[in-house]
Amino acid sequence: MSCTRQDKTMIRGVTKTFRIVVSDEAGDAVDLTGATVYFWVKENVSDTTPVITKNSDNAGEAEILTQAGDTLGKADIFLNPNDTQSLDPGTYYYDVLVQLSTGDRYVVVNPAKLFIEQGVVDLSGAPPPTPGLPAPQNEDEKSFQFTVPSDGDSWTISIPSSMYDGSYCVMAQIVSVPTGGDAAILIPLDSSKTANSFTLTATGVLLQDTLIDIILRDR
C-alpha cells in the first residue's frame, strides 16, 4: 500500500473536508468497498489521547466515496466547527489508517503536520449586539445603539428602562455613516446626566441611518 505525508493548514472553528486518495505501490487506486477509514489528530505524535477522531463507520465523520471511476480509492474526512473551535492555534499531528474488508490495516498518510490558525472572524465568543438593543452589560458601563431616523442635527435619546439608574455620565460616538455623511457629536466626554433622556447634538447634519453608540457610565 502506498503511503504519503501531507501537511495541511486550516482555520480554527470552520468546516473543512480533507480528501484522502488510497493507492497501491504501483500507483493504482485501491478499492475501499467494505473498508473503514480512520483519521486522528493529536497535539504530539506520542500522546495517548487524540483531540480529534473520525472514522467512516460513523455517519458525518468520514465517507468512503463510490468505488468506481474517478472516485475509486477516495474518501472524505469531515471536520465541523466544534472539532477545532476549542483548540489553541498551533501545530498538531494527524495520520490516516485504512482497514480493508480483509482485516488488513495500512497507514495511508504518515504522521503529518496539521497547522490550525486563528482566523480574523472568531465566532467562539458571544455574537455582536443587534443594532438598537443593549449590548452585554457590566455594572459600571452600559451601552446601546441609536439609529438616526431622518437627516438632522439634534435628537432626544431615551434610555432603555433596564439601563436607567438615576445618575450617569454619557458618551457617544459614530459607528457608521451612509455614503456622503460625516459629523462629530457634541456631547462632552462624561457629560453628567440625571434624566432618563437627553439631547444629542451634532456639529452638522447626520444622514438617516447613521449608527451611533451611546455609552453610559455610573456617576
Would you write up a description of this structure?
By secondary structure, the chain is an all-beta fold. The protein has two domains: 8-117, Immunoglobulin-like (Sandwich); 141-218. The chain is 2% helix and 44% strand. It has one helix and 14 strands, in the order ββββββαββββββββ. The chain has one helix spanning 81-84; strands at 8-11, 16-21, 36-42, 52-55, 62-64, 74-79, 90-99, 105-117, 141-147, 152-158, 168-176, 191-193, 197-206, 211-218. It has a five-stranded mixed sheet, with no helix packed on it. A hairpin with a 5-residue loop joins β7 and β8. 20% of the residues are buried. The model is unreliable at 133-139 (pLDDT under 50).
Quick recap of the structure?
With 219 residues, the chain is mainly β. It has 1 helix and 14 strands. The protein has 2 domains: 8-117, Immunoglobulins (Immunoglobulin-like, Sandwich), CATH 2.60.40; 141-218.
